[in-house]
Write a structure and sequence with these properties.
333 residues; 4-stranded antiparallel beta sheet; alpha/beta; 9 helices
Length: 333
């Protein structure tokens, strides 16, 4: 959160850097959001995918059904070179797609996600993706569940199917985001110490018994950018058994410090506040180095976990990144 100090009277003024959802509309937001996504996002995806959503779900980790001889029209990248060398004839790997898949959405709704300087807050961008993914899962006939976490605790939505399940997921996550503190333990909700990505991933790793597709939706901010994030081990553990996609939500202002004079900056997670002179070149260089270190560590961590990555910016609609992501995963099948 950013505050500006007046040069005349030293009055602190909150910048309009964090658009806030209108509270009276909050109860209607899940259904309204899903309708907008169906109209604005899913129709465009329909035109591109022609009703075939398997490219969105399945990555390269499909079950190998058989190896057969090459036929005209087969894709060259599916050639099994070991079998081809052994038999002297070109053979192709034939995969069997899983007929049923359970999709889990692990959603970060912590304080750092309630920030945004462009089109929406990071949390709102995350919920747009959640609504889109849940609706696609419903069309595909598979089950979707969700694990949301914030300072209020951890909330689990058991897997279900159809449009009503998409609404249920959105409703539960909106409720968690609007609840500042837990008031006793309720159904599907853990206590407040669970408000971390590390804890959420550990919970998922312990509870999932069968292979699933996981979308981990977060800003993946690391308070110590030169050290491996505390959630890295759990992410690698999940990626070993499941098909995991890291959906990174970011705001452009997090990558470049605005040249706006003296600002009071507050860490939304810890509440710590400091004054910074953003017009000072030394401050701007130090911030740039910090961002560079954070980005490099995140890239190394996600690469080590061998997960697919989908980057979503608060400044951009989610359709184009989703289409590029789908093409990339299709090309690796």
């Amino acid at each position: 959160m950013l505050f500006r100090r007046s040069s005349k009277n030293k009055i602190e003024v909150t910048l309009e850097a964090e658009p806030r959802p209108a509270m009276p509309r909050q109860r209607e937001l899940p259904a309204e959001l899903l309708r907008k996504l169906e109209f604005r996002v899913l129709r465009r995806l329909d035109g591109f995918l022609f009703g075939d959503y398997t490219g969105f779900f399945y990555g390269p980790s499909l079950d190998l059904a058989e190896v057969r001889e090459y036929q005209p029209g087969d894709e060259v990248r599916r050639i099994d070179w070991n079998v081809t060398a052994r038999t002297g004839k070109i053979h192709i790997r034939q995969y069997r797609e899983e007929k049923e898949v359970t999709v889990w959405l692990v959603v970060d709704l912590s304080a750092s996600m309630r920030f945004g300087t462009r089109r929406v807050l990071k949390a709102e961008e995350a919920l747009e993706f959640v609504g889109t993914a849940a609706a696609i899962v419903g069309r595909h006939g598979d089950k979707v569940g969700a694990v949301g976490f914030s300072e209020a605790g951890l909330r689990v939505v058991p897997p279900g199917t159809g449009r009503r399940q998409a609404l249920r997921v959105l409703h539960q996550l909106y409720g968690l985001m609007s609840q500042p503190e837990p008031h006793g333990k309720k159904d599907g909700q853990e206590k407040a110490h669970s408000a971390s990505l590390e804890y959420a991933l550990e919970h998922v790793a312990k509870t999932l018994k069968h292979r699933a597709l996981l979308f981990v939706i977060s800003d993946f901010l690391n308070p110590q950018p030169e050290q491996e994030p505390p959630w890295a081990k759990q992410l690698r553990r999940l990626a070993y058994r499941h098909d995991v996609v890291a959906v990174r939500i970011f705001d452009p202002a997090e990558k470049e410090l605005p040249n706006a004079g003296e600002l009071r900056m507050r860490d939304p997670e810890s509440g710590e506040e400091i004054w910074l002179d953003t017009s000072d070149p030394r401050v701007r260089r130090a911030h740039a180095l910090l961002v560079q270190a954070r980005e490099a560590m995140l890239e190394r961590t996600l690469r080590a976990a061998q997960v697919d990555v989908l980057n979503l910016s608060t400044a951009q609609e989610i359709v184009e990144p989703l289409l590029k992501f789908t093409l990339r995963r299709r090309g690796r099948r």
